[in-house]
Here is the input.
Amino acid sequence: MTDSAIVSRFNEIYDSTYKPVVAFITAKCGNTADICDISQETYMEIYRLLCRRGASCVRNPKALALKIARQKLARYYSFRERARIFVPLFSESEDGGEIALSDFEAAAFLTEDFTVDKMTVESAKAIIGQKPRDVRKVFYLFYDVGLTIAEIAKEMSVSESNVKHKLYRTLKEIRALLE
Here is the structure.
């Protein structure tokens, strides 16, 4: 198989399976910050499979993508639990508080407007981060993945009114706290 045939087939598989795979990963994932990593690993595995076996080896792309996503979820969380024993994810600051490794960002040459917007976004993320897992998943699926309320309800096995309630109630709370 030529590289262009493999890339073309991969793009077809990606386009036809992205939304259901990310929705599945989001529904099963314990932490919304891990969703991008797991979905990326899923599609990297599909690409490696196409390179090994050829572009015509995949007959049911959705089933394959969901199977690989399920395996990646299992491996990711089993590895993460094992690694947590050996690798500290936080260190202590001078005042005794915890500092997450993700707090160290290069923030040079920020304009005042950008800083205010970034602070607003970070405040909103902090508020959403304190919400229950199902609320965080609704926000991720709606804003990052672009699913509709009906699609979110179907993937999470809840009613549409439940999804709307979680979404709109939290938005109202965020607006009230940030005003």
About this structure: The chain has two domains: 3-86, 102-178. The domain at 3-86 is CATH 1.10.1740 (Rna Polymerase Sigma Factor; Chain: A). The first strand starts at residue 90 and ends at 92. The beta strands are 90-92, 98-100.
